[in-house]
Amino acid sequence: MPLMKSWVESANSADCPFPLNNLPYGVFSIAEAEPHCGVAIGDRILDVTAAEAEGLVALTDMPLFDVPFWNELMEEGPAVWAALRDRLIALLSDGAAERDKVEPLLVPMAEAELHMPFAVSEYTDFYAGKNHAVNVGTMFRGAENALPPNWLHIPIGYNGRASSVVVSGTEVRRPWGQLKGPNDEKPRFAPCARFDIELEMGAIVGTPSDGPITVQEADDHIFGYVLLNDWSARDIQAWEYQPLGPFQAKATATTISPWIVTKAALEPFRTDTPAREVELLDHIKDCGPMLYNIELEVTLAPEGQAETTIARTNYKQMYYSAAQQLAHHTTSGCPMNAGDLLGSGTISGPTKPERGSLLELSWGGKEPVELKSGGTRTFIEDNDTLTLKGAARGAGYTIGFGDCVGKVLPALDDPYARG
Amino acid sequence: MPLMKSWVESANSADCPFPLNNLPYGVFSIAEAEPHCGVAIGDRILDVTAAEAEGLVALTDMPLFDVPFWNELMEEGPAVWAALRDRLIALLSDGAAERDKVEPLLVPMAEAELHMPFAVSEYTDFYAGKNHAVNVGTMFRGAENALPPNWLHIPIGYNGRASSVVVSGTEVRRPWGQLKGPNDEKPRFAPCARFDIELEMGAIVGTPSDGPITVQEADDHIFGYVLLNDWSARDIQAWEYQPLGPFQAKATATTISPWIVTKAALEPFRTDTPAREVELLDHIKDCGPMLYNIELEVTLAPEGQAETTIARTNYKQMYYSAAQQLAHHTTSGCPMNAGDLLGSGTISGPTKPERGSLLELSWGGKEPVELKSGGTRTFIEDNDTLTLKGAARGAGYTIGFGDCVGKVLPALDDPYARG
């Protein structure tokens, strides 16, 4: 598919992340105004709440965009998702008849504050990237026991904390937690010393379900994708995670990129999951190309200094697709709702510069990562800014997500002091 | 504290679970009417939604009970919680001046259908009963490694699935899942063969928080308690839970009792957590009696047969209080919201008949439990009804929760068949 031309000129360059092919969904506000639903086009945002109020977008009897989140559209299902995309393309295409009515509803993206694009119903995080699982398993259990016995048979996942999901730009406070090193006699309560990122993609469930669904149905139920940084306190995790999994180590924050990129926009970039090393059971087999070719990058910038790209990889490195993860999630009959967020698990490629966490990049802190601005990192230091970037590159156009940014503030001196 | 007398005569007997001392909060409907908020008193329910509409209950400028859940009251905080209780006691006490206005708002509990009493924001399950942890650890890891190294230092918890929480009376369908026995060559997808209960108490967070809170603050934030059955697919759990904890094994359903028993009603039954075997760090120390003396019982009834009491224990057997669990939950800065539900973890006493799961009662299936109606059980069989019961017994009165009941339906022949 080539670039689709828009009358919004800034959307027509090959490296603009928001061409007409993309049309991702977000929530924005300008100055003191209430947050509205918006669609990114070039360097503008189309105010969809206003477009609906003026009758330019009329998909259903009841308004969908009078709330500052996209969950109401999700609930409508794939036919309405497609109808909205068709309508937006018609309004924004080069030569559109209604350009005069639409143009006043565009606002400059540079002036907008972006908010959470959807209300997170529940958040599940997976562990479904094989290179990451092998790296972490090798560090913690040795190369021979790197992959748990179940790893090649199910996408391992655990429930995360929806209340901790924040939008790009939200500052993240280094947490306190209970820590005990292998040689410490007793645990202590102290600030996390091994605070880390996890480079992930987040899949957003659009269609509710109330029983087991197939992988094809699961793919149909997914509304779109975001970049996702699953901030991880490695020292808290090491002490707490046996036997029932990560808990407080993952509860400080999870940051997502501000724009929901729809499945329709990603359609040309579909790709197969890698060859299976062990045949999967039928209910969890991919039935088509359900991964995506999305280039991913992580940068780290110390305060006031230039950023260094510390990792580059690709979403197609995943072993399990989001559709497989969602299908597995429903096997028990677990009810799924619009706005459920599924983290892919950390995405690492096979070589060292492709690793999606500092834990892997610094090999547990033993091999510091060099920064362009001077200095090194094993884990995140105070006031570092970490950014995830993602782009699917087509012939003459780019599908971008908007950066997924978080600055890490120092831990509080006394976390129980009330300000 | 003695029995408080009500003009609702049925509330004044020593074994009535809903005397004036209790006043638990639920949501009910009669015939085809919309669900309303209600308070149990004797064998009646006071329609609080109607009482508010008629001006008999007026706590805030905006109505709190025009929705079929109690979250709006929770959000108001402890002063309003106390004001409501005072007002209800005034309206329902023996000799109340407004009896004539209140009496028409009472409906017979026997005719009411009970619904979820609150909207579950997120659900966390703990593993904080020591006898249970030792029993399970001994079965899975041997007596010498029964307790994980962190167990005596933190209340171990994991995030559960809020969408799977249902009210007492909801039938539970035996799930399918991926299973692999220790001697199986490969996993298979099949109905769960080791479906189990977990006898727990659920604590409901009323006051939101957005950073670490102390144990005393945590106790202040708790709105009330319910009985909680954390249905568990032991064979699914055995295969999936390493390394990131239980996932689909716990996602079929969690059943709660229909009435939220307030902290105020339980106040006379406060008791200390057991002596610490290892001193806790300061931030997680109990600072007063924060457990409760609540007698608990589990019954099992095969279809059409009498029930057998298979376990009797007490909430005071817990090692960690709900306040300690909530305080630990916030150490990372994890935001908590009104309607968050915290499962205590399985409550087992020190002797065999006090064990709160069939896994423990049958010692992993090796020691079948005898039923009064004939036959035995290792795990739940199709069409068995499992019931949790709870009561705090005061001088001449009882604080009841309402039974927490679930019947287990057979697994579907084909979970992917669409009806």
From TrEMBL, chains A, B:
The active site is at H132 (proton acceptor). Pathway: Amino-acid degradation; L-phenylalanine degradation; acetoacetate and fumarate from L-phenylalanine: step 6/6. Its cofactor is Mg(2+); Ca(2+). Substrate binds at Y127, R141, Q237, Y241, T346. Mg(2+) binds at D230, K250, T254. InterPro entries: Fumarylacetoacetase, Fumarylacetoacetase-like_C, Fumarylacetoacetase_C_sf, Fumarylacetoacetase_N, Fumarylacetoacetase_N_sf. Coiled coil: none annotated. Transmembrane segments: none annotated. SUPFAM superfamilies: FAH (SSF56529), Fumarylacetoacetate hydrolase, FAH, N-terminal domain (SSF63433). This is fumarylacetoacetase. Gene3D superfamilies: Fumarylacetoacetase, N-terminal domain, Fumarylacetoacetase-like, C-terminal domain. Its EC number is 3.7.1.2. GO terms for biological process: homogentisate catabolic process; L-phenylalanine catabolic process; L-tyrosine catabolic process. Residues 124-399 form the Fumarylacetoacetase-like C-terminal domain. It comes from the Bacteria. The keyword Calcium applies. Residues 21-117 form the Fumarylacetoacetase N-terminal domain.
